[in-house]
Amino acid sequence: MTAEIIVVTSGKGGVGKTTTSASLATGLAMEGKKVVVIDFDVGLRNLDLIMGCERRVVYDFVNVVQGEASLKQALIKDKRHENLYVLAASQTRDKEALTQEGVERIINELGEEGFDYIICDSPAGIEKGAHLAMYFADHAVVVVNPEVSSVRDSDRIIGLLSSKTRRAEHGKETITLYLLLTRYNPARVEAGEMLSVKDVEEILGMSVIGVIPESQNVLAASNSGVPVILDTASCAGKAYHDAVARILGEDRPLRFLDTPKKSLLQRMFGG
Amino acid sequence: MGILDFLKNKPKPSASIAKERLRIIVAQERSTRGGPDYLPMMRNELLEVIKKYICVDIEDININVEHTSGHEVLELSVALPESKTTPTTAI
Predict the structure, then answer these.
(1) ipTM, 2 dp
(2) Do the Cβ atoms of B15 and A159 come within 8 Å?
(3) Are the C-beta atoms of A211 and A239 separated by less than 8 Å?
(4) Touching check for A88 and chain B: CB below 8 Å?
(5) How far is it, in rounded angstroms, from Cα A151 to Cα B26?
(6) pLDDT tens, N- to C-terminus, chain A (271 residues)
(7) What predicted TM-score, i.e. pTM, was given to this entire model?
């Protein structure tokens, strides 16, 4: 049995890859899928913090690649969902510790373990770690902010995804691309200060799978080590739920694209 | 938008400037993607040669490789300056 491999990537750093990986993995697990989320950012481990399992990391991804630990020893079971696992990145090794053969072996082993989804949280940039995170992917979630450098970098990443992956090299059906727009601020879009969903879609020539509004709840969630998708009262959490449903094939309209209603006073004085 | 916004002298919305700049740079980068590695360097060398005669900026030079049935066409376009003012460009 083979697992579906999804890479979460962006090119630019700080756009919300790890936040997205954590919420996507949790969302798929909530739908009953058996999911593992792997941190490919060797040297700068962070997914464990966002998932809230940082004190339970004993062995990491590099230990397994190098044969120093078994997959079972390194997989950290999520406290909230029993069908969700985390594979942390190494803090001490450098990027060279990962090899293509090693990654392939682990991905195959995870498939044999009956995982439905393998989420690969890519490091920023287009170096080795990012290349390995995307190489075996069947699907890619490209995280983009409505901001010039992020949009440009994501176009570059989209180019790499369609040429530098196993699917592209073996002439197989191309990787499915999902564009996820994060940190969206409808008020600033309305004021003409921020690129709109339509602008980003036009520039990149593809439509979005979801739009995550800029939200204070994202920071609150990372502060407490709970993926924001579990904050079901927040717009960001709801928007991640929608995105997961769309990835699973459900048709849902986009939400949270309009400015929240303001009071008369706020409107008069542009507050 | 409130009353105070009308009192401010508003320049062109920055989002539309961003969109225009991205549209151009993304199109340019896509056209050279997958193309030969020597294109950017050749572009710079051509700029040096052209600058001996005309005052142009690197932004005014466009190089494209077009794939048409069976053969490739290297297209070079140089936007010439409008008036003969003194050169202002520098690298």
Answers:
(1) 0.83
(2) no
(3) yes
(4) no
(5) 9
(6) 689 999 999 989 999 999 999 999 999 999 999 999 999 999 899 999 999 999 999 999 999 999 999 999 999 999 999 999 999 999 877 778 899 999 999 999 999 999 999 999 999 999 999 999 999 999 999 999 999 999 999 999 999 998 899 999 898 888 999 999 999 999 999 999 999 999 999 999 999 999 999 999 999 999 999 999 999 999 999 999 999 999 999 999 999 998 877 667 766 776 5
(7) 0.84
Are A26 and A81 in contact by the 8 Å Cβ rule? The answer is yes
CA distance A128 to A123: 9
- With b for 16 or more beta-carbon neighbours within 10 A and e for fewer, the B66-90 pattern comes to eeeeeeeeeeeeeeeeeeeeeeeee
Contact check, Cβ <8 Å, A159/B30: yes
**Which residue, chain included where needed, has tokens 């969903």?**
A197
Q: Which two tokens stand for residue A172?
A: 């197989």
Q: CA–CA separation, A33 vs A209, rounded Å?
A: 20
- Chain B positions with Cβ closer than 8 Å to A: 1-5, 13-16, 18-19, 21-23, 25-26, 29-30, 33-34
| Partner B contacted by A187 (CB < 8 A) | no
